[in-house]
Amino acid sequence: xxxxxxxxxxxxxxxxxxxxxxxxxxxxxxxxxxxxxxxxxxxxxxxxxxxxxxxxxxxxxxxxxxxxxxxxxxxxxxxxxxxxxxxxxxxxxxxxxxxxxxxxxxxxx
Amino acid sequence: xxxxxxxxxxxxxxxxxxxxxxxxxxxxxxxxxxxxxxxxxxxxxxxxxxxxxxxxxxxxxxxxxxxxxxxxxxxxxxxxxxxxxxxxxxxxxxxxxxxxxxxxxxxxxxxxxxxxxxxxxxxxxxxxxxxxxxxxxxxxxxxxxxxxxxxxxxxxxxxxxxxxxxxxxxxxxxxxxxxxxxxxxxxxxxxxxxxxxxxxxxxxxxxxxxx
Lengths: 109, 211
What we know:
The complex is a heterodimer of chains A (109) and B (211).
Chain A: H1 3-15, H2 19-22, H3 24-34, E1 38-40, H4 41-48, H5 52-64, E2 68-75, E3 78-85, H6 87-104
Antiparallel strand pairs in A: 1-3, 2-3
Chain B: H1 6-16, H2 22-40, H3 55-66, H4 68-71, E1 74-75, H5 77-81, H6 84-109, H7 112-141, H8 144-161, H9 169-198, H10 204-208
Helix pairs in contact in B: 2-3, 2-9, 6-7, 7-8, 7-9, 8-9
């Protein structure tokens, strides 16, 4: 196999990364949701540092991909948007972590 | 750039919900109440650990009122209970419980010498027991101030041990719990006031996401 082909093959996992997960803002949201059972909109807003509009847009994309489940509930008559990672979302996140670690490894030093 | 892993993300997320000082306030009130109870009736000491069961419930109620509208809500549920650290903590707690039980039986069956020694060492033992909760939390969530609380509680055990030997030993324990409770309550109130100032209540549409 030619050196070019070897190089191309070793970079293939990067090309196969899930683009829904790969976007930094969505990756932040998924990373937070991966360590909790559920979290509300305000908690995610504070943890990620995103703007309301940005967070809302990325939440919709994650929900459309089936990675996040969004539910509305009322706490003392005030609506609360609760987010939870779906099994599909957790699988996608774990797969992304495996691929990115496999492709790039741990940083030197 | 800092290295991040999921464990660190979880610890930081948890810490953001523990910066309010409510845990310190409730723990402080609990210790003060027991210190006062011991002043009235020395037989109250064995029931002290049972009150710990109510602390998480009270904290949840207070957080719902003051914390979630300011910094948001997260349920750490199962994600928090998994892992080797949880097993180690449970094993440690079991071993400590077993040691205390064996220690109590030994004292009960012993002669006057060990009884005198145990009475003398009781403030230190209580100091160590009271320090366990903040030290376990400090280790688990990497919160430096709880290491300081643990050290202060143990130090108060040694300090109280040197108090007037003519005092009834249960009065000394009562005084120790009141000192520890006072420290926790004062620190908790300071943290709570700082938290309220730093994080104003968010408007409903911000909390809701207005979707």
